[in-house]
Specification:
- This protein is of the alpha/beta class and 265 residues long.
- It has a single domain (4-262), classed as Rossmann fold.
- Helix content is 39%, strand content 16%.
- It contains eleven helices and eight strands.
- An eight-stranded mixed β-sheet has the order 3-4-2-5-1-6-7-8, sandwiched between helices.
- Helix 6 (147-162) links the parallel strand 6 and strand 7.
- Helix 1 packs across helix 10 (226-238).
- It is globular, with a radius of gyration of 18 Å.
- Magnesium ion binds at residues 17-18, 41, 46, 120.
């Protein structure tokens, strides 16, 4: 087994990175993959809450780095999927408790054990972001269809390319087709034009995401959730499958635009 290390990042805060990590990791586990997620948001951890594991934390990533426990002891097993684990972030205020070489070492140790390591990043482009991308084989950039979020995503794409991390893939999150139709929101086509990177998925604005997060139950487990379906599709694309994009709004021409831009029929 040689795991693929996938980092989810964004630049701007609050666009859905942690939501994406929890849902993609869960969807990959549902597909039978062995997955470890790492919360790279030191000081502001919340991946544990979204995955419903906050009461199970004994050790965190800083305990591993500082030698207070073995890596295995900091891997919290998910309640529903025995092949899904979380390594939580520390609540420490010291952002320098983790370095890029620590992350590389931890990911290296995990590589032979699992299929995917999924790393959640803090907002911004400082130390936590550098840590999160250090070991990445692949980076997913999340943005919302808002000018400020897209601008920050563009900056992150520039840094990733300068750091020779390759071109990242885009998750466009919280798209509202009705607003796009009224020209009140950037369309997927607009965002792709601005960023010029590969699109791996579009996740609609969907209140089931918030309900699921509050329950500690990622929406990929909800068969009726549109956002859940979008995340399940992204997880399958990460496994190399060619999955058509969802038709989020039959009337808006959105689907046609996505097909044109991605060359998918
Ligand atoms: N597709 C969606 N539809 C509706 N709400 C969403 C969607 N995606 C995310 N949210 C909500 O947006 C908020 C921010 O999401 P999340 O915490 O995943 O963002 P983040 O990028 O990790 O934030 P931070 O930068 O603070 O770590 C949460 O309340 C989440 O439930
Ligand atoms: Mg987050």
């Amino acid at each position: 087994m040689t795991a693929q290390v996938i980092t989810v990042t964004s630049g701007k805060g609050g666009v859905g990175k942690t939501t994406a990590v929890a849902n993609l990791a869960t969807a990959l586990a549902v597909d039978g993959r062995k997955v470890v997620c790492i919360d790279g948001d030191i000081g502001l951890r919340n991946l544990d809450v979204i995955m419903g594991l906050e009461n199970r934390i004994v050790y965190d990533i800083v305990d591993v780095i500082e030698g207070r426990c073995k890596l295995r002891q900091a891997m919290i097993r998910d309640k529903h999927y025995p092949e899904l684990y979380l390594i939580p972030a520390a609540q420490t205020r010291d952002k320098n408790a983790v370095s890029p070489s620590d992350m590389k070492r931890i990911c290296n140790d995990l590589k032979s054990e699992v299929d995917f390591v999924i790393i959640d990043s803090p907002a911004g482009i400082e130390r936590g972001f550098r840590n999160a991308i250090a070991a990445a084989d692949r980076v997913l950039v999340v943005t919302n269809p808002e000018v400020s979020a897209v601008r920050d995503a563009d900056r992150v794409v520039g840094i990733l390319e300068a750091e020779e991390k390759g071109s990242p893939s885009l998750i466009l999150n919280r798209l509202n087709p009705a607003l796009v139709k009224n020209n009140d929101m950037l369309s997927a086509e607009d965002v792709l034009d601005l960023l010029g990177i590969h699109l791996i998925g579009v996740v609609p604005e969907d209140e089931t995401v918030i309900i699921g997060s509050n329950r500690g139950a990622p929406v990929v487990n909800d068969p009726k959730s549109r956002a859940g379906q979008a995340f399940r599709n992204i997880a399958r694309r990460l496994q190399g499958e060619d999955v058509p994009f969802m038709d989020l709004d039959q009337q808006s021409g959105f689907w046609g635009a996505i097909q044109r831009l991605t060359g998918r029929k």
